[in-house]
Amino acid sequence: MNIITGNEFDAYWKSRTADAGGDEDALDRVRRIIADVRLRRDEAVRAFTAQFDKSAPERFEVPREAADAAYRRLQTTDPALTDALNIARDHINQFALEQRKQFFDFEYEVSPGVVAGQRVIPVQKAAIYVPAGRFPLISSVLMGVIPVRAAGVEEVFVASPPVRDGLPDWRILAAVRIADENTRVFAIGGAQAVAALALGTETVPRVDVIAGPGNKYVAAAKRLLFGETGIDFIAGPTDVLIIADERAHPDTVAADMLAQAEHDPDARARVLTSSEASAARIARAVEERLAALPTAETARASLEAGGLVIIYADEDEAVRIANAIAPEHLELQCCDETNDRLLPRLKNYGALFIGEKAAEVLGDYSAGTNHTLPTSGSARFSGGLSVRHFLKTVTTLRCSEGAGYAPVVKAAEIIARAEGLIGHSESAKLRLG
């Protein structure tokens, strides 16, 4: 893990981001997968499933009884996890429903006789991709399915890779049952799953939006198929940035860094702190915690590859660096007065966690906010997964005779003629009689 000063940050950051971009090898491989699925449909999906996954089921759609059985198994074998998932579901649903209220229909008379408006319409079909690689991401089921339902989408699907019994991981099935018992599940994974859902096959429905995390091949498929289907965003490795002043507890900072670093070696945990002494305390706390962490091998690889402690000179420098990094997760572990000063100046982050008690892991699982967030600096222009990804905002216009109608028509006629679009101009002029 590197410790640098704010003055050294720009050169460090430039060197780390110079080669950032798409994985061309992954894109090439996924192009071939998409082309084959487009041509051979179910046959191609089945062949790729046999090649890349742990089994190749004859039937992709999972019987509803399998999810019911998985839920009963979870209730019996792990009632504490069942209760925890139910609590998380309720909080995520409450938050998503509040989000939905922010998108509403309206009409407004912009000029007498000219009424403009908007309608907010859910897409008809949406799919959530749930990976099951190093860990089965049961929480991602809730984070995806619940906002889709809160948006009002009629048909909801989950795609997740099959394990050795030909079904997705049983805990993922149980989580689907907890999130929404009417969601249909397909035992398909990887780029072939994204292609099947984007294009449609004999047995896999074509959907309007595909959302959810995945590996670089899933991300490449979403990138290449955007336009034929809607997507949430292109996800990369997870990351956290913690702004910690002298009062921050180094053990808490270290715990939150390791919570991110243990995801995979490409995960990035970074800290902005106010002194060399604070940086040294945090580094010691990280080493002490690593010694007892079961996932230490992965976490250490992550920290050695990109772990970073930056010593900032003042708050202006801390804000500048934080906005440049545009982290997926941004934690403020400063005194209340400092947090209050920093908050309005911080512009680029996927999710913000204010104060020591607001652990990022609460956002990951149970507090209600969504954990599917923009990564790799894309928080500069994007927010996290929400009901808005499954809604279309469309506009309406209704006109009648009124004092404002003729000027609007005349303006359209003049502008169209100036652009050389005489058909447009004539269409407007016709309305004046």
The fourth-level CATH homologous superfamily of the largest domain is Nitrogenase molybdenum iron protein domain
**If strands are numbered along the chain, what order do they take across the biggest sheet?**
1-11-10-9-12-13
Please name the CATH topology of the largest domain: Rossmann fold
Q: How big a fraction of the residues is strand?
A: 15-25%
Number of strands: 14
Helix share bin: 40-55%
Biggest sheet descriptor: 6 strands, parallel
Shape: globular
* Ends distance: 75 Å
Unreliably modeled segments: none
- The pLDDT mean sits at 95
- How many DSSP H or I helices? 17
CATH architecture of the largest domain, please? 3-Layer(aba) Sandwich
CATH class of the largest domain: Alpha Beta
Helix/strand class: alpha/beta
Using only C-alpha atoms, the radius of gyration works out to 25 Å
Number of separate structural domains? 3
Question: Please, could you describe this protein's structure?
Answer:
This protein has three domains: 28-101 and 119-231, Rossmann fold (3-Layer(aba) Sandwich); 236-380, Nitrogenase molybdenum iron protein domain (Rossmann fold); 401-430. The model has no long low-confidence stretch (mean pLDDT 95). It has 433 residues and is of the alpha/beta class. The N and C termini lie far apart (75 Å). It is built from 17 helices and 14 strands. The protein has helices spanning 6-17, 24-40, 42-52, 64-77, 79-101, 138-151, 170-179, 190-199, 216-225, 250-261, 276-290, 296-306, 315-325, 336-342, 360-365, 405-418, 422-430, and strands spanning 2-5, 106-111, 114-122, 125-129, 155-159, 184-186, 209-211, 230-231, 239-244, 268-273, 308-311, 329-333, 351-354, 391-399. Helix 10 (250-261) links the parallel strand 9 (239-244) and strand 10 (268-273).
